[in-house]
Predict the 3D structure of the following.
Amino acid sequence: MQLSIKENACIAPYCSMKAGGNAKYLCFPESPDELKACILLMREKDVKTLILGNASNTLFSDEGYDGAVIFTTRLNKVEVFGEKITAECGVPLSSLAMAAAKESLTGLEFSYGVPGTVGGAVYMNAGAYGGEIADCFSEGLFLTPDLQEVVLTRAEMGFSYRKSVLSQNGYILLNAAFALRKGDPDKIRAAMDNFMRLRREKQPLEYPSCGSAFKRPPNAYAGALIEQCGLKGYAIGGAQVSEKHAGFIINKDNAKANDIIKLIDYVSDTVFEKTGIRLEPEIRIIRNR
């Protein structure tokens, strides 16, 4: 088995924010067996490991990561069985939505345009426009920390807003099954096109970002609070609070990762000082080595 591994390689090209330092190792498995082999190899080297899809919700500091980052984007098989669709952890959500639409299956339209993979989406119960992964997740095949394969059903996933049991048990998704239903192909396509139109109109898709920078606080909207505090367009270095949607922090001009992190902290602190509401980052920040 020949594994695709890079040493002392820059993380930025593989992350949605296009920022961040070097990792000790970058690994690109192409099958579940290769994923297991990468994990075992790094354990033998006594190297800490992070497993990511396309890092659409993760930002590494400029100091980098003194460990291995395993990217799962080459695990990208999708299969359809009647009204159920299965996808490996590295499948982009938009690809999953398109595969469902091709079979006239409804239930995943909301995920079209969400910049993440199936693994990350299940981990954080990703959602948009009134839908979320928990709505259609049926079951998943996971690796436990001791690399045993187990199946968890929806009832065992502990889904809540942007959370699942995976943040506690350390399980790694290999593939997931989604229970959908037959629908009108024209309506499915129209809904997907409408969601994408809304994204293009309201979100700064022309710049690298990690999507919504902050979780939605109770009874409020992060973007509205940020704008209310006069921070729309505020910048630190090449990082900026989007002028199009204040809930997004963008890499406008070759931003350093640490400028982005400083801006996230500044926005959170300023909103708290002015409103009493503490915004919690939705972006996962890896701050140190």
